[in-house]
Amino acid sequence: MATPTLEDVAQAAGVSVSTASRVFTGTAKVRSDKHAAVMRAAEELGYRPNAIARSLASGRSLLIGVLTQDISSPFYGEVLRGIEQGLEGSSYSAIFASGHWRVEEEASALHGLMGRPVDGLIVLGGHTPDERLAAMAAKVPLIAVGRNIQGLEGQCLRIDNVQGSYDCARHLLELGHRRIAYIAGPESHRDARERLQGFQRALADWNVEANPSLIVEGDFLEPSGLLAVEALFARGAMFSAVMAANDQMAYGARLGLYRRGIRVPEDISLVGFDDLSGSAFTTPPLTTMRQPTYEMGVTAAEAILAALSGTPLPAAEFRVQLMVRESTAPTHRERQRLSPLDSRSAAPAAPPTAQASDPWPQDPPYSGERL
Amino acid sequence: MATPTLEDVAQAAGVSVSTASRVFTGTAKVRSDKHAAVMRAAEELGYRPNAIARSLASGRSLLIGVLTQDISSPFYGEVLRGIEQGLEGSSYSAIFASGHWRVEEEASALHGLMGRPVDGLIVLGGHTPDERLAAMAAKVPLIAVGRNIQGLEGQCLRIDNVQGSYDCARHLLELGHRRIAYIAGPESHRDARERLQGFQRALADWNVEANPSLIVEGDFLEPSGLLAVEALFARGAMFSAVMAANDQMAYGARLGLYRRGIRVPEDISLVGFDDLSGSAFTTPPLTTMRQPTYEMGVTAAEAILAALSGTPLPAAEFRVQLMVRESTAPTHRERQRLSPLDSRSAAPAAPPTAQASDPWPQDPPYSGERL
DNA sequence: CTGAAAGCGCTTACAG
DNA sequence: CTGAAAGCGCTTACAG
């Protein structure tokens, strides 16, 4: 026989389909002997409730749509993993659609999701207009991760990009760096703009003059980080540290530095943002701002489930955390200031006065021209 | 009004639901004026066919189940991306379930997928018994990526792991390496066993004695690569190259080497397997065996679609390709053999005779004890 | 606690 | 080419 239906089970158990249905949905009490009979029959026949029929009858698809940008992105991948985890144990499954950072593709992905239709929607970043998202939110519970939606602030899971970026810059500044190159994300990304802003704010607070020639825009992917470093050298920029708006660009920058024979962190310090799972295994391990991506995914799923069950969760802002690893170090000058008589060095450190007369005594920033 | 149904559209267009249905499914000719009327009505009402109802009526869920191990894995992620691409344009969507390398979890993931039910199944690796997979294949088109299923060889998309691994080892051997440490994948993985076999076969062909103390087993993840290198040093192993059964373990090994202050490739060469997207950006860029993961994903999706439309595709074996990047170099000895009078070196190279009397004149393998 | 019945929104023979 | 009707496999008021 083909796959057994509820009717087969009911018949085998000697009850009505209504009763059989009730034992599976648990929506009403069923006399224990009938309950047992149904279970036995189901077991014997190898019955599996058909989710599609169930969906049509109940009006719920048991599908949560997830609009992502790239399923293989190390950043979104972590969020996806969290969502999967957060949905575990519920009867809901996630169904993904990718926008690949293209507006039209994102629109059609969203369209496909809503047409299925899904019972809830999780939106990861992207460029879909706020109004469109608000319109979907009117039909179905919606949670956004990593982006803000006008009027739906309570359903947006976010981090403080400005503060996170500020803290990365501060770390570098405290290490003595003053000429810091910045590899920005695309101007069209709000996250990218906020991170740049945090960087600039820190500079201002430290009275370091902003230097436009030290800023290059990338696209959040590795190759652009490499290109950015090359552009920096090509224009003769001088810097002792590089700060990238995300880890992937930091990886690219790392390669650019390696190509020039520049050591990290001895010659130049490097900082990223995100703390992708690979960042603990780069050479050297990358100092970066940890974003709790996995946790955000879990929370997004839980929030959707909560909204679906009628008890919406309040959205909280997530905390970021600076992971100081090995890609950052004090400038030579700063190292000497901290321990001018450091006995570990064979030769005695130069006296502070000698340094003052020379702008870059032991810590010359690299420049493209000089290499 | 709530979301419009086919009936609303039919009514607005002045036709029967049958006719309206036909213009959307395209299963039969419809007079052009009625066709236009239906389209107009649908447009005006903002009609979207309900995929669930359509599924129930047609018996097809339009869902392709994908059993993966970890949605955020850089390896599986690429395959997933390929699958998504391969399904694009079709009316099918992928729905993922992860086994996390645990047999029971994999079983329940598979169970959930079949219960939805899905119209086709793509299985990425895993440990589900062949018989169970064969049973599913009887119900629904099934394609496996990266694993072989007894009796379903024609539906398995594979690479030649033995040959790929052999070629990696050959690369190292041709560079002059003889003491090669090997970080194996888990014994329970067929892929892992095959790669180890390829490695050993190459060694045998070069008359290099197999040395069990140079082999460590990892679990295909980064930390195990790091641990493996530490274990190697702890046992005092001597080697001039490390070959890992996959890139992720190679990343871990890279960090282990870095921790010891060992340079790659000057001191020790390193080879991976897979060519993950990050491998072109490690420091130094990793020499590895490219596996066409994305293409395999696309092909898997196309094969499922083909099977669904009644014209199954023949399964082909995929070609792997050695990507020689910068993590491998000739041994010092080999370098000198190739250009004994290399004028680029300031000091003249030592005469070959001097070398012959000393087993490790300039190219001492590292050992844990000596560091 | 339980059964008969309507209905979820479509598709698809069947008969014109 | 087109309509009326049955049916996909469930859930869920409704009436006992």
UniProtKB/TrEMBL annotation, chains A, B:
Boundaries of every HTH lacI-type domain copy: 4-58
Keyword Repressor annotated: yes
Family annotation (InterPro entries): HTH_LacI, LacI/GalR-like_sensor, Lambda_DNA-bd_dom_sf, Peripla_BP_I
Gene3D superfamilies: 3.40.50.2300, lambda repressor-like DNA-binding domains
CDD domains from the UniProt entry: HTH_LacI (cd01392), PBP1_LacI-like (cd06290)
Annotated segments matching region Disordered: 326-371
Compositional bias per record (Low complexity), positions renumbered to this chain: 339-357
Keywords of the record: DNA-binding, Repressor, Transcription, Transcription regulation
A molecular function GO annotation: DNA binding
Protein name: LacI family DNA-binding transcriptional regulator
